[in-house]
Write a structure and sequence with these properties.
heterodimer, A: about 220 residues, alpha/beta, Rossmann fold, four-stranded antiparallel sheet, 7 helices, about 35% helix, B: about 425 residues, alpha+beta, about 55% helix, elongated, binds adenosine-5'-diphosphate, binds magnesium ion
Chain lengths: ~220, ~425
């Protein structure tokens, strides 16, 4: 599903260029639940942003399915993000003035789906994460775990090829963390390819495979 | 794209305080602009009514006293134009209409006019029919003087409406009735009115007009004498030029030194008219400058708040990009927001402004003194809406550029 061939990334800010990713190779088969582990500042988010086409890279090749993700036009990048990828963030990133249901429906807005159909599909996915009773609530009225579930429903609503989660439990307590992990595992069991970035080993241990990122290189896997 | 407007409505209606703050500047700008234009128009109308109908290119010339000896004639002789001068002046190429006139009594004082047992003091003039081309008049009763009145030296009179109101009881027949001026009887053939108001109306309407010829033969001291000449210039001729030409012609014919400024009095209405025109232009300019500046500051306010908003919404915009929004759709969203906020606020300002003008207008009635009923015309309103749309886009430009520059990866890093 995902194939990285010698991915290189350097941040050029100020006087000293920062070589963050140094020729990464990685293959993620369809349906895998992969964890990317590494200490803070090791380049996990940078890698995930490249996978999410939110950021570019300097060298190598990134294949998403059978499409080479390189020098995409604005339009194409937006389209790939919308149709192929689902994002889950540590800080949820829900729009505070939209209800849970409307937040879930938002990606479909950028597909030009009618409002009625959007809300119908959003309700379906909100139900799948067990929050149909909360669909009319604003994010401010939800707990952290509930917010992340709304975010997961939003990531799934477009039926993407890959779900990308950057420290999805980083802002949650241990009980809620386990609930979210259980949800991710269930979604994975239904066939979704998921890449989780984390620096916690007990998260990584629950994933099918873990790769360790250190100083811009993969150093072993489990 | 009703969907994007719906999405936009979602954003602005859920952020009420911000939205209200944003629109209040434009609202006030528009409101003030409309008010100022409206009252400016009212003022202009009021002043036009006051000077209403007075010719804009008229020249007045009258004989006075010579101050220089000339060709054997002494100084201090009075200068008396005669009927022959009428024909001479008519020959002037720049002249459109010439109306000679005599007046009974002194310059400011009237004479007694008697009707039955009623008596009043009015200006009594000997006039020609052409006077009607200089001073617009309407005739609620009867008619104006005509050429046959002059040719046959008929003893007829046309009186001002206030004269009729003074001398006649309600329902009393006016046309055909007899007035006596200095012992001479005249039959009333018409009552006139003018569009003037205030003092001007009093000066022009408290008048009894007699045929110029009849006047000269009825009152012996005016025989073959013309008190003064009123003329209008052809459209392409400046009134001041005609004034100089009339003075020169009269000076030559009446043997007056060309440099004798005292021999004739004269005046033209163009300078006065020009002053008023300039004043209106200045008021209008001021209104537009101040109003536009107010509106512009409103637009800048919208721009500023949108800019702050874009900064606040960096994460939201990054998220939207991650969910599939293109740069173009983000820019469109900001521009739409700017446009919608300015348009709604401006329209509200327009409606409230026009409403206030309507209220003021009905309170002022037909206007009082120099203030006419305030108003704005459709053209101004449409123009203001156009300015708003441009202003709205303008307001959105800088914030939209900032929004477009947001990198989703950076925006979501937190
Ligand atoms: N946009 C950026 N510009 C410059 N340096 C960056 C940028 N983003 C990340 N970095 C740097 O790159 C390194 C890796 O960052 P990141 O990928 O966020 O690490 P992690 O997610 O593993 O903590 C860090 O040293 C960070 O300071
Ligand atoms: Mg990180």
């Amino acid at each position: 599903m995902i194939r990285l061939v010698g991915i290189d990334k350097t941040y050029r800010v100020g006087a000293h260029p920062l070589h963050v990713l140094k020729g990464l190779h990685l293959t993620v088969p369809p349906g895998e639940l992969l964890a990317i582990m590494g200490s803070s500042g090791s380049g996990k988010s940078t890698l995930l942003n490249i996978l999410g086409i939110l950021d570019g890279y300097d060298g190598g090749e990134y294949w998403l399915g059978d499409a080479l993700v390189k020098d995409l036009s604005e339009r194409k990048a937006a389209d790939y993000r919308n149709r192929f990828l689902g994002f889950v963030f540590q800080s949820f990133h829900l729009l505070p003035f939209k209800t849970a249901l409307e937040n879930v429906a938002l990606p479909l807005y950028y597909q030009g789906v009618s409002r009625k159909e959007r809300l119908r599909r959003a309700a379906e996915h909100l139900d799948q994460v067990g929050l149909s009773d909360w669909s009319g609530h604003l994010p401010g009225e939800l707990s952290g775990g509930q917010k992340q579930r709304v975010a997961i429903a939003r990531a799934l609503v477009t039926r993407p090829r890959v779900m990308l989660a950057d420290e999805p439990t980083g802002a949650l307590d241990s009980v809620t963390t386990q609930e979210i992990m259980d949800l991710l595992k269930r979604v994975n069991a239904e066939g979704m390819t998921i890449v989780v970035v984390t620096h916690e080993s007990d998260i990584a241990e629950q994933c099918a495979r873990t790769v360790f990122l250190k100083d811009g290189r993969f150093e072993g896997e489990r | 794209m009703p969907e994007s407007w719906l999405e936009l409505w979602d954003v602005v209606s859920r952020n009420r305080v911000r939205t209200l703050l944003t629109i209040s500047g434009v609202f006030w700008g528009m409101f003030m602009l409309i008010l100022m234009i409206g009252f400016g128009n009212g003022l202009e109308r009021g002043m036009q009514d006051t000077v209403g109908g007075t010719f804009t290119n008229a020249v007045f010339v009258w004989g006075r006293t010579a101050s220089l000896p000339y060709r054997g004639l002494p100084a201090n002789r009075s200068v008396r134009p005669s009927n022959a001068e009428i024909e001479a002046l008519r020959e002037l190429p720049g002249l459109a209409v010439l109306a000679p006139r005599n007046r009974l009594g002194g310059w400011r004082s009237g004479v007694n006019v008697v009707h039955g047992s009623e008596l009043g003091n009015y200006q009594v003039n000997g006039d020609v029919p052409e006077w009607a081309e200089v001073q617009p008049m309407t005739f609620p009763l009867g008619r104006w003087l005509n050429q046959r009145d002059l040719d046959e030296e008929r003893k007829v009179a046309v009186i001002g409406k206030p004269v009729m109101d003074d001398l006649y009881g309600p329902g009393e027949p006016v046309i055909g009735s007899v007035l006596t001026v200095n012992g001479v009887a005249f039959r009333v053939v018409g009552v006139f009115d003018t569009p003037l108001g205030g003092e001007d109306a009093e000066r022009v309407e408290n008048v009894v007009h007699l045929p110029f010829t009849t006047f000269q033969s009825a009152f012996a001291s005016y025989r073959d004498y013309v008190g003064w000449f009123t003329a209008t210039a052809r459209p392409e001729v400046p009134a001041s030029e005609l004034e100089a030409a009339m003075r020169a012609t009269l000076a030559e014919r009446l043997v007056v030194h060309p440099d004798d400024l005292n021999a004739f009095g004269s005046r033209n209405s163009q300078e006065e008219f020009q002053k008023i025109v300039n004043l209106f232009a200045a008021i209008r300019l001021l209104v537009w400058v101040v109003g536009s500046a107010t509106l512009l500051s409103g637009v800048v306010g919208v721009s500023n708040i949108l800019l702050v908003t874009v900064r606040e919404r960096t994460a939201e915009i990054g998220l939207r990009r991650a969910l599939g929004a293109t740069r173009v759709s983000v820019v469109t969203m900001i521009l739409q927001e700017a446009l919608m906020l300015t348009a709604v606020a401006g329209y509200a300002g327009l409606v409230v402004g026009v409403g206030v003008l309507e209220l003021a207008s009905s309170a002022l009635g037909e206007g009082s003194g120099s203030m006419g009923p305030p108003s704005v015309d459709l053209r101004v309103a449409l123009g203001a809406i156009g300015v708003l749309i441009v202003g709205g886009l303008f307001a959105g430009l800088i914030p939209a550029r900032h929004a477009a520059a947001i990198e989703p990866a950076a925006a979501l890093r937190s």
